[in-house]
Amino acid sequence: MNRPAASLERLQEGLRDLGPLVVALSGGADSAFLAKVAHDTLGTERVLVATAISPSLAPDEENDCRSLASEWGLRWQGVETHEMEDRRYVLNDVDRCARCKGALMEALQPLADAERATVVLGVNVDDLGDHRPGQAAAAAAGARFPLVDAGFTKRDVRHWSRELGLRTWDKPAAACLSSRIPYGTPVTLGALSSIARAEASLRGLGLSQLRVRHHGTVARIEVEPDDLAQVVARRAEVVALVAAAGYLYVTLDLEGFRSGSLNRGIERPTGPRGSAA
């Protein structure tokens, strides 16, 4: 892996300027890296790591956040968020992520006030090119994005995570479960539960990077192109596992895994580099 352009020292300097911090930890490579570097840079007393607990967080991800906090000695706590109580979130329009990040900031801000801290999120430069209204909502509520400020791409995050010996360096991206539901289809507890169960079962087959897109009674499975043949070869197992999660029909998307595949046709942000547009 070639050395990235982003500087770990620059990130650390930015964190010192911002601290104390409340770091939102979702369990993904970006937020885990940010939490660990913030903790190592500023110390336990100046960094609180918090994980939003809600039906849109897969149980496996919640458990991994707890494990990471224990392994790395992070000062951590789980905080409940209540986006499912927001009718606009449940209706699932193209601004759903903004409702989610609004709920996250509502939960984290009291912690930040108590700590006299700044809320920081693990957004990287590559994230700025997709339809992610949640970034703008979080920024409007006062969140900062240190990885963006330091010029970190996803590749940079993975490089430095590996350099630091973090087991999350190659962890597949894992967006919230609601992102599997097409815009306009209501977000329900039943749908979120089915998605979580189906994806956990498929990971049990050795498939790491995957999505189960929820289309009512139909599950559309996305895996890496190199894994398509494996899914077909094990189709009986795959169908049985996904059907057990509550789906009547099981399909395999021949295009393979695409992050944000349900964002097709949505206008991309045009804000400047480093913004939350």
Oligomeric state of this protein: single chain
Mean pLDDT: 90
What composes the largest sheet?
4 strands, parallel
Q: What is the ordering of alpha helices and beta strands?
A: HEHEHEHHEHHHHEEHHE
Record field, number of beta strands: 7
User: What is the gyration radius calculated from CA atoms?
Assistant: 19 Å
Number of helices: 11
Structural class: alpha/beta
Low-confidence parts: 268-277
Distance between the termini: 30 Å
**Helical percentage:** 40-55%
Strand order of the largest sheet: 3-2-1-4
Kindly estimate the percentage of residues that lie in beta strands according to DSSP.
Answer: 5-15%
What gross morphology would you assign?
Answer: globular
List keywords for this structure.
277 residues; 3-stranded mixed beta sheet; 4-stranded parallel beta sheet; disordered C terminus
Outline the fold blueprint.
Elements lengths: L7 H11 L2 E4 L4 H14 L4 E7 L5 H14 L3 E5 L6 H5 L4 H20 L2 E3 L12 H8 L5 H4 L4 H10 L25 H15 L6 E6 L2 E6 L4 H6 L1 H10 L4 E4 L25
Parallel strand pairs: 1-2, 1-4, 2-3, 6-7
Antiparallel strand pairs: 5-6
Structure description:
With 277 residues, this protein is an alpha/beta fold. 42% of the residues lie in helices and 13% in strands. It has helices spanning 8-18, 29-42, 59-72, 87-91, 96-115, 133-140, 146-149, 154-163, 189-203, 228-233, 235-244; strands at residues 21-24, 47-53, 76-80, 118-120, 210-215, 218-223, 249-252. β5 and β6 form a beta hairpin. The longest helix has 20 residues, at 96-115. The protein is globular, with a radius of gyration of 19 Å.
